[in-house]
Amino acid sequence: MKPVVTVTNIFSETALERLRQRCHVVYNDSGASLPVAELKQRAAESDAMVTYLSDRIDSEVLGAGNKLKLVANYGAGFNNIDVARARQNQIWVTNTPGVLHETTADLTWALMLGIARAIVPADRYTREGHFTGWQAKLFLGHDVYGKTLGVIGCGEIGRAVARRALGFDMKVLYCQRNRLPEEQEQRLNAAFVPLEQLLRESDFVTLHVPLTEETRYMIRAEQIAMMKPTAYLINTARGKVMDDRALVEALKKGTIAGAALDVFENEPELTEGMTELNNILIPPHIGSASHATREVMANLVVDNVFDALDGATPRTLVPGWNGG
Ligand SMILES: NC(=O)C1=CN([C@@H]2O[C@H](COP(=O)(O)OP(=O)(O)OC[C@H]3O[C@@H](n4cnc5c(N)ncnc54)[C@H](O)[C@@H]3O)[C@@H](O)[C@H]2O)C=CC1
Ligand SMILES: O=CC(=O)O
User: Fold this and answer.
1) Does this chain's domain 4-99+291-309 share its CATH topology with 101-281?
2) Could you give the 3-state DSSP secondary structure of residue 138?
3) Is domain 4-99+291-309 annotated with CATH 3.40.50.720?
4) CA 192 to ligand 2 centroid distance, Å
5) Domain 101-281 belongs in CATH node 3.40.50.720
6) Closest protein CA for atom 4 of ligand 2
7) DSSP string covering 147-192, please?
8) In what residue span(s) does the D-isomer specific 2-hydroxyacid dehydrogenase catalytic domain sit (predicted)?
């Protein structure tokens, strides 16, 4: 009998084809998330599950997985999965590191440039027929080149963002739990500083930490108030790393110049007042959304599924799986 693999939401056709050659695939192509009861049912009947970061794979779902060997998340973040419970139940958990950081760094830069130079309102202005000719004060923004970039969480994505700053002659500050090896700091021309210093000195603050108990709401009103009034805050990490209500208030008052968020505290819900602001960009969680990257991610997910079904350790277990 073929092993059963559930794919909880829209997935790559080529990756699905690979799965179907070896497995019986139960595919939810409705575009809507599966309700919890259905996730439990799928866990009970599956050998592996391919999940979205919006699927809450908690102890209840994992507890139903009698023969479940693997939960393979289609993304780098895995805060939607109760990893401790999965380990207890001897269910592997994998994510997709090493393949999406450049694409997500590109999006982070698109947001930095887009918010600092008012690209979206300027485009709207032209489309609406307001443009009557070059004007000295039309859509004045702030420079990005030569400024100070503060990277909070200098992992795969944070480092890819920092590396791009070299081409913009920026000074780079970073903070995280552990200092990078000296050779990496030198290559990025980045200085390790405490969070407070980073917030006070940066013109662009960009968040790249995973959502954990330690990082939940690490940026609140108090931290935003430390930033320069001309600074921008970029979040392509997870919504709950930040207090979005405090951000909306700060943007209304002009505490900082603007913000760009790819992720939201109560995703997909937006925080009240967000859409009325002009100094914010709010794309719908598209950090890794390039054709090529989503394909590579999907194929890495399938590699992990095949590893687990072959009785091997899946190749990209989530960080910390072995206690590191
Ligand atoms: N917007 C999007 O579409 C995407 C968002 N993400 C999010 O970005 C996050 C980061 O991704 P990667 O760079 O691949 O992860 P990573 O694991 O390579 O890097 C995370 C960094 O955060 C640091 N960190 C962890 N806890 C910390 C703490 N308490 N204080 C300070 N620093 C801390 C770590 O030292 C590490 O350097 C993911 O966990 C995910 O939530 C990832 C991919 C795409
Ligand atoms: O948010 C996306 C991810 O890959 O994590």
Assistant:
1) yes
2) coil
3) yes
4) 25
5) yes
6) 75
7) SEEEEES-SHHHHHHHHHHHTTT-EEEEE-SSPPPHHHHHHHTEEE
8) 8-318
Cα-to-centroid distance, 308 and ligand 1 (Å): 25
User: Which residue ranges make up each domain of the chain?
Assistant: 4-99+291-309, 101-281
pLDDT score for 320: 87
Beta strands 4-7 and 48-51, pairing class: parallel
Burial category of 113 from C-beta neighbours within 10 Å (exposed 0-12, middle 13-18, buried 19 and up): middle
| Alpha carbon 175 to its chain's center | 18
Measure CA of the first residue to CA of the last residue in the chain; give whole Å: 37
Q: What is the ipTM of this complex?
A: 0.99
Query: Do the Cβ atoms of 234 and 107 come closer than 8 Å?
Result: no
Residue 141, classed as helix, strand or coil, is coil
- The catalytic residues are 238, 267, 285
- Whether 324 shows a pLDDT value over 60: the answer reads no
Q: How far is the CA of 205 from the centre of ligand 2 (A)?
A: 19
Question: 51, 53, 81: which to mutate for ligand 2, most atoms within 8 A of CB?
Answer: 53
